[in-house]
Amino acid sequence: MSSNDAAQSAQVATRTRATETPADAGDAGYSKDLKHRHVNMIAIGGAIGTGLFLGAGGRLHSAGPALALAYLVCGVFAFFVVRALGELVLYRPSSGSFVSYAREFLGEKGAYVAGWMYFLNWSTTGIADITAIALYTHYWSMFTDIPQWVLALIALAVVLAVNLISVKYFGEMEFWFAIIKVATLVGFMLVGIFLLATQHQVDGTTPGMDVVTDNGGVLPHGVMPVVLVMQGVIFAYAALELVGVAAGETSEPEKVVPRAVNSIMWRVGLFYVGSVVLLALLLPGSVYSADQSPFVTVLSKIGVPAAGDVMNLVVLTAAMSSLNSGLYSTGRILRSMAMAGSAPKFTARMNRSQVPYGGILLTCAVCVLGVGLNYLVPSQAFEIVLNIASLGVVSTWVIIMICHLVFVRRAREGLLARPSFRLPFSPVTEITTIAFLLAVLGLMWNDPAVGRKTLLLVPVIAAALVAGWFAVRHRVTEAADQELSDLAK
Question: Is CATH 1.10.486.10 the classification given to domain 32-410+424-488?
Answer without folding.
Answer: no
